[in-house]
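User: Hey, quick favor. My workstation is busy. Could you predict this chain's structure for me?
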Amino acid sequence: MNTILVLGAGRSSSSLIHYLLDEAARRNWKVIVGDTAIAAAQQRIQNHTHGVAIAFDINNQADAASIIANADVVISLLPATLHPLVAAICLASNKHLLTASYVSDEMLAYHEEAKQKGLLFLNECGLDPGIDHMSAIQVIDKIRNSGGKLISFESFTGGLIAPETDRENPWRYKFTWNPRNVVMAGQSTAKYLQHGQFKYIPYQQLFQRTTPVQVSGYGDYEGYANRDSLKYINTYQLNGIETMLRGTLRNKGYCAAWNILVQLGCCDDSYAMENVSEMTHADFMASFTDGVSENVASWLAHRFSVTSNGPELERLNWSGLFSTEPVGLDHGTPAQILEHILNKKWKLNPDDKDLIVMWHRFVYKVGDQVKEIQASLVAKGDDAVFTAMAKTVGLPLGIAATLLLEGKIKSRGVVIPVDKEIYDPVLERLKAFDIVLEEKEM
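Assistant: No problem, here it is.
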């Protein structure tokens, strides 16, 4: 009996575990779900005959090693900083490992040993990174096979909310992913290539320098550059390309409002604030201004040259940032306090539905003729548990684990899903869940 161990039972695990339990019932496999809160793991398993819920703490090395030793494949949904700890145990126990996170330098250091031991350490196999890689490479390969040469590639992905959800929400956004990751987004310099020139955007400018994106049938969005796009030039085998940009997608107007919070310093995580237990939301905002809590909105309007009833301050006001409600924390950094305040309005309600929007633009030459393909993928969640984010992050991992146990993935070492043996079958099986990239020649 094959055993799959899932580490982490958080908000992104629902669809993955549901998929794996269905596969386990068909194939007589076992799925073990481990979390520091065993109740969370039990909630995901729901007494399924092929599922087991356990308490798991990666910091308890002896117990963690014993649990991992009894699995055939390990899927880690733990925070990305903990993946190297899991990887070290998987190496010692000769177990395959799959994650949805970016390949870190620590993870990459395990490549040779994993390859020598015949182990697959598959990373970046979620949504972004994940489906973005797989769907892009599939189109790029078709362009190459038609004799085309890619000269520009842009890709943006975002987790948003569906049109029918929370209609009064001016951000058109809620937390569908780890809230901390949202608050901390973009705090390293973004790097990309544009028209043959290397470009760099420091955090302070990131939400001011956006790219307009129009997705047919869904409307206008804006994208901001995401981390390091340059490293994917080699990964995608696009040497000589003139433009390479990967980014995050948001609804139009989001970035201008979020930029105010960035410029104020509300997303800083480097120090603890004072007197937090007595602080209101307005006090928190006033801490970063020359004004007092009673006129923070007016001060911001003057400081950022926006109107007092304009869309930027409307978004901040809707989020409760000018209210006299107590923060409700005893201590915290600015980023932690901002996350806590926003979570009061940005948390998904039980019947809320989220929306994933992915958009690629490929510009290429065939001889002297310039051609363009735009491709988009849109997925909607069922509710606050089986979200589109959980589907698009979890299902690629579950499908890849299934393919691995079927003996259909031969790659070994630390890899991402840019090889045809991985991306073709994963994308094909995702179609059964209405996760499909629609292509259009412009």
